[in-house]
Amino acid sequence: MKIVDLRSDTVTQPTSEMRKAMYQAEVGDDVYGEDPTVRALEDLGAQLTGKQAGLFVASGTMGNQIAALVHTKRGDEIICESECHMYYYEVGGLATLAGVQTRTIEGVRGVISADKVEKAIRGDDIHQPRTALICLENTHNRAGGTYYTPDCLKAVKVVADKHNIPIHIDGARVFNAAVAQNLAVARLTEYADSINFCLSKGLCAPVGSLLVGTSEFISSARRIRKLLGGGMRQAGILAAAGIVALNTMIDRLDEDHKNAWRLADAIANLGFGIDMNTVQTNIVLFEVQSVGMNAEQFANLLENHGIKCSQFGEFKIRLVTHHDIGNEDIDYVIKAITDIFRG
Ligand SMILES: *Cc1c(COP(=O)(O)O)cnc(C)c1O
């Protein structure tokens, strides 16, 4: 049976160009700072995002947790969105690793306003923790791949500067945010002190993320990466694929966005509960309650057609488009969902 895997863009296979680059990569011991391919990837990531330096890390989770560790002290508080990845999906790392507590704010489609951020910042009352960091997720995963505009980011930056608080962007899919708005990614990173982005999602690299920021921030981050066991040796084998990802896979994200929109439009026309305003990039999030099913029942019916999805809570299904999903796969999925709908 045909398998169409829409669980996540993390399932993407490395391209043949990546595999070739991995085979040919010049490598060295990166803990000694001697891997030229890792260095080249870190420089490329820093340059694209307009930052001084970059650090190749094993995963997005590792990059985010390192950022929290560098920016905060134990007992501090960080402001973040109520369903953000750092809070929701990182195994309580903010508590166990950085020892910080979270002040969660509900966003509008994942986006938190400068005004709400400002209201959540603590004063100098000695009873209160210190607000040490503001985290923004762009694009926002659980909200359905929604993005921040440069204006929203700038407004948060004005508030952050007023209170002297750094901003970290969890930009696992920040290139989707950039392509969807037809912007250079640097327009979305300029208001942040640090940004983490994934090479291993829509960009199709097999492994890794990049954390970028000032040279000073990155040298602290490099020590913390070692502490977490993330000092890798001939990691240029992996970084080589990351370079190909950044050089060849960004612009094509637009195809994933078009496929997501076509899929979402068909789902909306059938009468499923879907907020088309959330369909901004490569994620389609919809409710199956309106057709008298829960997420598990619906996922099982999709599975019968060879279609894999993610369940988000009791009634929501998430479908993610990516490089390994073509137009004909979208046609196939629309037909299957139509058949399921008609019973
Ligand atoms: C996937 C993801 C991460 C973490 O990436 P891993 O490489 O899976 O650890 C962080 N933030 C967001 C928003 C993500 O979607």
From TrEMBL:
<comment type="similarity">
    <text>Belongs to the threonine aldolase family.</text>
</comment>
<dbReference type="InterPro" id="IPR015424">
    <property type="entry name" value="PyrdxlP-dep_Trfase"/>
</dbReference>
<dbReference type="InterPro" id="IPR015422">
    <property type="entry name" value="PyrdxlP-dep_Trfase_small"/>
</dbReference>
<dbReference type="GO" id="GO:0005829">
    <property type="term" value="C:cytosol"/>
</dbReference>
<dbReference type="GO" id="GO:0006545">
    <property type="term" value="P:glycine biosynthetic process"/>
</dbReference>
<dbReference type="InterPro" id="IPR001597">
    <property type="entry name" value="ArAA_b-elim_lyase/Thr_aldolase"/>
</dbReference>
<feature type="domain" description="Aromatic amino acid beta-eliminating lyase/threonine aldolase">
    <location>
        <begin position="5"/>
        <end position="289"/>
    </location>
</feature>
<dbReference type="GO" id="GO:0008732">
    <property type="term" value="F:L-allo-threonine aldolase activity"/>
</dbReference>
<dbReference type="GO" id="GO:0006567">
    <property type="term" value="P:L-threonine catabolic process"/>
</dbReference>
<keyword id="KW-0663">Pyridoxal phosphate</keyword>
<dbReference type="InterPro" id="IPR023603">
    <property type="entry name" value="Low_specificity_L-TA-like"/>
</dbReference>
<dbReference type="Pfam" id="PF01212">
    <property type="entry name" value="Beta_elim_lyase"/>
</dbReference>
<keyword id="KW-0456">Lyase</keyword>
<protein>
    <submittedName>
        <fullName>L-allo-threonine aldolase</fullName>
        <ecNumber>4.1.2.49</ecNumber>
    </submittedName>
</protein>
<dbReference type="InterPro" id="IPR015421">
    <property type="entry name" value="PyrdxlP-dep_Trfase_major"/>
</dbReference>
